Amino acid sequence: MSRLPLTDPQDLPPFLESMHDGAAENDWSTRHCARVFAAHPDILERYLAFYYPFHASEPGSLLDSRIKELVRLRIATLNGCKTCKAARLAPGEVSEREAAVGVDEPAEAAFSARERAALALAEQMALDHHAFDDAAMSALRRHFSEAETLELMMMIGQYIGFGRMLAMLQLEETHCPIEPAVESQPQTAESLR
Description:
Mean pLDDT: 87
CATH class: Mainly Alpha
Structural class: mainly alpha
CATH topology: AhpD-like
Order of helices and strands: HHHHHEHHHHEH
CATH superfamily: AhpD-like
Radius of gyration: 17 Å
Helix content: 55-70%
Distance between the termini: 21 Å
CATH architecture: Up-down Bundle
Largest sheet: 2 strands, parallel
């Protein structure tokens, strides 16, 4: 159960009420996230206003959403965040096989050299960022411009941080631990908004 109090659903402000009520029936984690952020609703709304346009590669973003989705899913595995791993924010660009296991076995998947470089950076940032050296930067720069490198690192950093926060607050499960576990349905960007 959440490590912070969960506000009663009928007491949620409009943004969080929409998020709560728009979640799939078995997506208690999104509903609990909405309820816990009632303590500071503005911060989540503003965070998601940054997150979704950049993740979806809307104007102002340099990287395509496929690379960001692959990286997000790899970070989800490394963080152990079941909610993030179950979510499919770019289902038209990343196959279910790539999302479920490909990102965790990049040498076995049919990823481009650029995608592999992004996945390697995600793993390094999540597991051993102090070991990132000039050689690693040179390898990364063969695939990404300076501006793309900054955007990729910013996105990876926020994927790591938000996923770990959900885990620490015990909001990361995709099924209620009191009920028998059921096969969870992949979440969409819409259900997480």
